[in-house]
Amino acid sequence: MGSLGFWRLAQADPEWVAAVDPDGTQYTAGDLLARSNRLVHGLRALGLKNGDGICGLVPNGVEGLVLYLAALQAGWYYTPINWHLTGPEIGYIVADAEAKAFIVHERYAAEGVRAGEEIEPHRRFAIGDVAGFRPYGELVEGRPDTLPDDRTNGATMHYTSGTTGRPKGVKRALMGIDPDDSAELMTFLLGLFGIPPGRPAGGEHQAHLITSPNYHTAVTQFGGTALHMGHTVVYMDKWDAEDTLRMIQEHGVSNTHMVPTHFKRLLALPEDVRSRYDVSSMKWAIHAAAPCPVPIKQQMLEWWGDCIWEYYAATEGGGTIASPADWRAHPGTVGNAWPISELLIVDDDGDPVPTGAHGTIYMKMAGVEFEYKGDKEKTEKNRLKDFFTVGDIGYLTEDGFLFLSDRKADMIISGGANIYPAEIENEIILHPKVADVAVFGIPDEEWGEQIKAIVEPAEGTEPGDELTAEILASLEGRLAKMKWPKSIDYIETMPREPNGKLLKRKLRDPYWKDRESAI
């Protein structure tokens, strides 16, 4: 194949700055190459073979990148683990992934130690000091920094957040090809957005900013792919609105992956802070994970220009893409199908619905086969022929543009009418005194469900009846009365995963706890 792929680029130009840690430390490609080579030699000495798995509980930065690069050139599966989980939850993933090595950063020592019981002591390694774990140095010290023999492509195996039951690993078959060729195939992802290679792959300087935790599929895919295209990968430890602007300016960031919550917080910055930074290097601010309210996206386009791209996809494969021009022509769309992907909208019986009608969204991607590891039943249940769904509801326009309504699980059925919380949230979030909002159904004897809103007030705003009246009044003429929340409760901080995903179950469960079944 061509000239892309980290290992090829690193050998051709070892001095290229390939990654920047959150503390500003820069790493050359040659340094990363040597580290990932030593790790392969060390893990092979531990007995790891083709198709084995390793797990990492590590913060954003170069340590996790080295684990990723080692696995992807040695034919292993790499599972980055969510550091917000508890010991037993982490241990479940280590055991389920059949990991042959578990690497824990001392920052997560407490839960890491509890999880470590799931794996033999000689397979546990610590970056820093973790009780009962061997120092990471024992794996790599004295190992050669030369390319290992018999290199073959590996893959990441991410665990889906599992809204019901245990999380499941999404496992793809390994192709048994050269790691750089495999990496080059991955670059089709950034190619969909028209993102070119950077230096040293023959292009101009390109830098990719990582704004969310590296254990999320999209974060790993976009960051990893940018690296394989010769971009500099710049890591943030914890997301901060002003920091984001500073880093875009400082590193000449040209592309990033964000979520609508990030946009809302950036737009909330005072005008003088916003104008302090030059963000003109940004050409592709790609967002996904949740529907973006139309006015918020419009404000971002006004501020950052036509660099706001959107897509809709799932860990399992397939999806849509909306360029800034597509979105301006169809405000609110998540785009049309990728060239190698197909969409299908069906009713509850699995029959296709007419154009413009709401239904469950099914997708497929040419040539992509996956299974939920060890769960044939779940794999089959979410399939319709060779299409699969993640349970979202939406509709297609005449010309094939997809609009999302909501997740099936979040739909409220009140008085027999289907109500989509996302639509209500998108209106309430626009209120200047609202920092964040969640809407869901709670039990109602007469109507089945009634609409409840939980609001995180903006800084310096007093929660209470007065604010509730003000928020409801703002919906006048914008939202049918039947969609107005019956009541609003207030919360100090909305429970969100750092990738912006709202943990609605945490909010909803207390209202349903005495019920036989939550609808």
From TrEMBL:
Biased composition (Basic and acidic residues): 142-152
PROSITE patterns cross-referenced by the UniProt entry: AMP_BINDING
Keyword Methyltransferase found: no
Bias (Polar residues) ranges: 153-164
Chain spans, region Disordered: 142-168
Keywords: Ligase
EC number: 6.2.1.3
Domain AMP-binding enzyme C-terminal: 423-501
Keyword Ligase: yes
InterPro entries per UniProt: AMP-bd_C (IPR025110), AMP-bd_C_sf (IPR045851), AMP-binding_CS (IPR020845), AMP-dep_synth/lig_dom (IPR000873), ANL_N_sf (IPR042099)
Domain of life assignment: Bacteria
GO MF term list: long-chain fatty acid-CoA ligase activity; medium-chain fatty acid-CoA ligase activity
Organism placement in taxonomy: Bacteria, Bacillati, Actinomycetota, Actinomycetes, Streptosporangiales
Family statement drawn from the similarity comment of this UniProt entry: Belongs to the ATP-dependent AMP-binding enzyme family.
Protein name: Acyl-CoA synthetase
Any Pfam family: AMP-binding_C
